[in-house]
Amino acid sequence: MTSINAVTDLSNENEIAVVTLNSPPVNALSATVRDGLAAGVKQAIADPSVKAVVLICEGKTFIAGADIGEFGKPMTGTSLLDVEAVIENSPKPVIAAIHGTALGGGLEVALCAHYRVAVPSAKCGLPEVNIGLLPGAGGTQRLPRIVGPEAALDMVTSGKHVAARKCLETGLIDELAPEGGLRAAAIAFAKRIVAENRPLKKLRENNAKVDAARGHPEIFANFRKENARRFRGFLAPEYNIRCIEAAVNQPFDEGLKTERKLFMELMTGPQSAAQRYVFFAERQVWKLPDVPGDTPEIPVKKVGVIGAGTMGGGIAMNFLNAGIPVTIVEMESQALDRGLSVIRRNYENTAKKGRMAMADVETRMALLTGSLTLEDLADCDMVIEAVFERMDIKKDVFTRLDAIVKQGAILASNTSYLNIDEIAAMTKRPEFVLGMHFFSPANVMRLLEVVRGDKTTKPVIATVMKTAKRIGKIAALVGVCPGFVGNRMLSQRQREAQKLVLEGAMPWDVDRVLYDFGFPMGPFAMSDLAGLDIGWVKEKSSSSTIREVLCEMDRRGQKTGAGFYDYDANRKASPSPVTEKIIHEFRAKSGITPRKIGDEEILERCIYPMINEGAKILEEGKAIRAGDIDIVWINGYGWPVYRGGPMFYGDLIGLDKVLARMKQWQSGMGGDFKPSALLEKLVAEGKKFRDLK
Ligand code: T1G
Q1: Which end of the chain has the least Cβ crowding within 10 Å, N or C?
Q2: Ligand 1 centre and the CA of 152: distance in Å?
Q3: Does the beta carbon of 26 lie inside 6 Å of ligand 1?
Q4: Is the CA virtual torsion 650, 653, 657, 661 positive or negative?
Q5: What global pTM score does this model have?
Q6: Which among 553, 554, 545 is positioned nearest to 583, based on CA atoms?
Q7: Which residues are CB-neighbours of 468 under 8 A, at least 6 positions away?
Q8: What is the pLDDT of residues 281-303, one digit of tens each?
């Protein structure tokens, strides 16, 4: 065994050279890895006793891509294209031995090898699109030459990780190796290649599939059309499509040039910078400064959910999906039966769409027990309350839970804004109480706000964060304050959106600006979807807001066919002359003279107060990092990932600009715009949110 460099070893196993990379955590293609790989393969090629070369990695995975942390910094070491040239032009067969995930540049390196062997649990993918990029080392030119343009389009625009068995079917993998026996199998495979004098398969020369697609532009036109909605606002998917088109319409080396040009445009653009920031923020969010990774956890083998309504049912499904038994409690059998049947129907619909086997439906339903008594939750390890959002009801439930549920169990509330400490104080075990704020639909939305109470212990927090991972959520630890992080910032946007309508804009103007910014829908369309009568009490209604007037006219949103918008039979929204008239009358009645409000002001008035509120949340310690706030907004409130989140966006446009606007509005419109002290401090010091440690 020869050490090529700190992360690369070379050994000669009976004429088969094995280049082994070992660069934890994921053998990313850092400069050192690239140098080692190039030098190792060159040395093997130069060794006359070597007949073939196997590339393999130590640790949990084969190369999982370029080192994202190096992006945006000056490039050092051997370039990836040079590494690939050494491998592809090797006069001796090079075999890539894949385990874990061969992703991005890792798969591109493997595609330059002449053969690929993998264990069945391995996966291959080109997920660059998820960080706003495209495979920039030949992947968009070599992949379609092996799997065909259609499959390549799907892989590079979805970023999905394809299982090894599927890769074998498409020819991406030449042979499967036994689990745990990859090295030996790859060496044996190499020996067979040599013995059978098999050709050096260079994908750059494999043109049949791209040639067959030439003259069929409909492949790309249809793909663009079918995915227009999914790709809205993103640049990278379109750029990936253009690269596959180049693979079909241009000679290999010309296609490579096109790929490089488009890659550099994305790499130097704002979208990828934002999505790379989010990549790391999604990993940082799990790191809790005062809850170390080895904090003891409470085993969670059985979960109780109180309330079988929309939220309770969705929450229960998360645990059933993770194989954790759930007892769900309702007050009345009718409500319980309805809740249980909704869960079953959701699963059956998923099965009908082929996304789940019917057997799995039964497996999950078998883990679910309905109950009409809290006493059935006595032996649960975790109980999540999802009852009506009223403090008195929550307090009553927690008082009773405290008397019933075994000591050491975690008691959580799904409240979306009520004070967790007040709820916890109803028990003799506030240290086991916290908030677990799910987002509707709770079985679909990835975000979980974990609300830490004053007395919540570290083992409870560590357990809930780990449980969040088990049920496929991304969890952000936040502090107790009205609306926590997400809703607290949302209320800033909603308030300004309503004020803008009073001042002169129309609801559909505000929605259009936020939709064009990248949100799935604007605040008024969202209100119509949720129902304008949430929290509205008819008897107490007094036409004091435009929303009240709409409700009084039975325009309660999509469900009544009218709200801020009018809706046709297919629930398609259109600006409403009725609402327009109501708004004009309401302004006149309130003595407001409307003014022309431009799109830029609408956007700033909706976004900047959110950023300011995010700064207040940080200065109060209600969120650990600015990145956590961005993760909340991207995974819970539809903030477009290619804009990085409200705090990242604040840094991008300049905190000085945000502060200047807040001060301008404060002097013109008062206290709603009081700048955060932290914002003032950062601007004074010329710093950004990302500079905060
Ligand atoms: N670069 C740098 N660091 C990386 C990394 C990468 N590519 N992938 C993972 N890490 C770090 C991560 O930040 C974390 O660090 C640790 O590894 C474990 O990751 C030219 C342009 C491989 C499926 O997009 O999808 O190649 O937090 O927590 O859940 O065409 O990581 O511990 O300090 O995610 O087991 C393309 C990205 C790059 C794959 C493992 N590749 N990685 O998941 O662990 S662009 C990707 C993943 C490219 C070329 C282009 C996942 C994983 P820390 P983790 P995991």
Answers
A1: C
A2: 21
A3: yes
A4: negative
A5: 0.96
A6: 545
A7: 448, 450, 474, 475
A8: 999 999 999 999 999 999 999 99
